[in-house]
Amino acid sequence: MTGSLSGSLARLGDVRGRRVLVRSDLNVPLDGSSISDDGRIRASVPTIRALSDAGARVVVTAHLGRPKGEPDPAYSLRPVAARLGELLGRPVAFATDTVGESATATVAGLQDGDVAVLENVRFNADETSKDEGSRGGFADQLAGLADAFVSDGFGVVHRRQASVYDVALRLPHAMGTLVAAEIDVLRRLTVDPARPYVVVLGGSKVSDKLGVIDNLLGKADKLLIGGGMVFTFLAAQGHQVGRSLLEEDQLDVCRAYLQRAQESGVEIILPTDVVVDTTFPSGDREPTPDVVAADAIPADALGLDIGPESGKAFAAALSDARTVFWNGPMGVFEVEAFAEGTRAVAQALTQVDGLTVVGGGDSAAAVRQLGFDEGAFGHISTGGGASLEYLEGKELPGIAVLER
Question: Exposed end of the chain (fewer CB within 10 Å): N or C?
Fold first, then answer.
């Protein structure tokens, strides 16, 4: 072990024998104690492995779920630590608290190259406190466990939290390879992107995407809109949307976006057909999907996916793209009857000759659940919310603090 590091980690210098606190994103879905999607753990491995191989004593901190600021066995990182050890091919120690006796003893017992995972950082209420003093006190305790800090949890860099922001003020710090890669890709989406530049947005609500739509209307060439959010756009055009998700307080906003797009030459493409069901969800009954025109949704129907013709139209709109950003599924992809629109978009992205970015969250989950080879996409982000805020033009506190 030479102690030397490359890339974004190089600023730490020789880490052999030093305790390095790594803020990873290990917030994976659990079914009991079983991990149903280990994508974020796998994405965290390269930074942890690089530090371990260089002789650092690696101390990993992360959160899982939304415990209420106190220990909750349902959100323990113990199964995550076990999976991390399998992926690293070496033992990973586990501390049963974050900054208490177990954490102190576990870190003290590390040898050069060893890795430990601390228990869920959100078991401590001060981690997410709005009070700087409370957060800072907890950050002092975290910093006391280490000699340097590496930020590698991209999914949380848009949060001003103790283990993301405040610790970086207290220790020599560097970006992990994952965060550095994410920022590099997002800069390519915002600084002179190769054209045509196509953005695909889905998910439930228009209100979740207001900032990114507003910012990208001046940058993208085409904006394809699906998912639950599309029904507010359809209603803004004067169409009836039945029982579909509708944000009535966003109708004027959607009308304004459609008008701005027309004036600025950005093409907004909405579905021309949708998949509906009149009784979904209904317990154990199999769905009875029906395809209807987007401007003729029955009053008793619930829109749950873009239709087959829209899937083809979206794929055609993506066929000549050189840069694509996709955030949000086209429908309720978890149910096979309503997965075809999301599958059509994912398949089209695999054919793009250029940079394709899957913007984390449900989009990344859909890619994996629908069986696509992750290597067929240019980049699959680990942070949906952070990606969107970056594309909105917002400052990400967890990135800004690293650049001080």
Answer: C
